[in-house]
Each structure stands twice: as structure tokens, then as C-alpha cells.
Amino acid sequence: MSQLKEMLNFNQQFVKDEAYRPYEAPNRPIKKMTIVSCMDCRLIELLPKALNVKNGDAIMLKSAGGMVESPYSNTMKSILVSLYELESEAVYIIGHTDCGMHGLHAEKMINDMKQRGVADHKFAEAAIDLKQWLNGFQSVEDEVRKSVSIVKNHPLLPDHTLVFGLVMDPKTGKLTHVV
Ligand SMILES: [Zn+2]
User: Fold this and answer.
1) How far away, in angstroms, is 66 Cα from ligand 1 center?
2) How many angstroms is it from 17 CA to the middle of ligand 1?
3) By the 8 A CB rule, do 132 and 110 touch?
4) CA of 95 to the centre of ligand 1 (A)
5) Residues β-bridged to residue 12
6) How much distance in Å is there from the Cα of 65 to the middle of ligand 1?
7) Hey, which CATH number is domain 29-102+137-177, 3.65.10.10, 3.30.70.3400, 3.40.50.410, 3.40.1050.10?
8) What is the 32 CA–ligand 1 centroid distance (Å)?
9) End-to-end CA distance of the chain, in Å?
């Protein structure tokens, strides 16, 4: 059975059994918080459990590395939406140790793309400096500080927004407060 078929079968049963009942929640975050974290698959359940965040408690944004790359990135837009339209009042940027973005070099990824058959002329079509765009980071703490600084200094950030930076251990869920 294909993964999709399996998923759809499971889903049909999930709804039929009303298994969604424990997850019913309002569409505004109860704890008025926005969390930006990495897409790492180890954090799917661990991160909210380790933070005591339940369905409906927070706005959760995910990206590679949990980075807020620029003041006008999609992540920053989502943060602003959460603060202005969804009643969130605090932003938590949570990086993690052993992150796939740690030490990732654009050159390596570009090479991987070439090996997977992306033709040379395709790279020329990119409307962005790929060598910068595809780079990871060298220090998760520095990256968290950088993201916090982008959010804190954003010209459109509502006054009195709290912005915190933390790093999580993806095995134990232990948090370290960075900024
Ligand atoms: Zn990561």
C-alpha cells in the first residue's frame, strides 16, 4: 500500500473514531506565544512536550535551522501575522544542537543538486545568490542571536513584544537560554 493510501485510510478512521476530540482548541494561541524552531524530525513531539505546549497553546513556525533569515523573509512575515492578527505577544526562537544546518555549506548542496541531475543552466536562472541562500551556520548560538536581533530590530514589530532565544538538546529536550 502506498504511503498516501495508508495515510488516507488512517485519517478516515481517525475522524470516524473522533480521535480529534482531545485536540480541539481555539484558533488564537492560548499562551499568546509564537515559537520558531527547526524542522528537524526529532522535534515534532519532543519540542512541544518539553515546553509544555499543547494544541492551541502557541503559533508554531518551522524552518531549516529555525532561522529568521531576513527582515522580509516568510518566517518574519509569519511572526508579524502571529503578533498582529493572532494575538501572540512573545516570540521564542529555538535552535538546537546537532542541527542539519550546522556546518552546511552551499557548495555541498549545489554539488548534491548537480549529482541529482540539475543542469548547469538552471543555477543561472536562480533569482538569488545561491551560495549565500543555501548556507547553513557555524554556531547555533550565534544563529539564534542573529535571528533574535532581526526580530527585535524589525521596524514593524509591535511595541513591548518579548523576544527570546534558546537552544534545545534534541535528545533530552533540555533548553539553554541564549538571549
Ligand atoms: Zn535543525
Assistant:
1) 7
2) 34
3) no
4) 7
5) none
6) 4
7) 3.40.1050.10
8) 24
9) 48
Cell of 93: 526562537
Residue with cell 508579524: 80
Q: Which of 83, 104, 73, 65 is nearest to 28 (CA)?
A: 83
- Residue located via cell numbers 554556531: 139
> Beta-strand (E) ranges in the chain?
33-38, 58-63, 90-96, 162-168, 175-177
The answer to whether residues 139 and 69 touch, using CB atoms and an 8 Å cutoff, is: no
* pLDDT over 70 percentage in the chain: 100
Q: Find the 64 Cα to ligand 1 centroid distance in Å.
A: 6
Mean pLDDT, the chain, rounded, equals 95
In angstroms, the CA 120 to CA 160 distance is 48
Mean pLDDT on 100-122: 93
CA of 2 to the centre of ligand 1 (A): 28
pLDDT above 80 for 97: yes
Residues, Cβ < 5 Å to ion ligand 1: 38, 40, 99
96 Cα: distance to centroid of ligand 1 (angstroms): 6
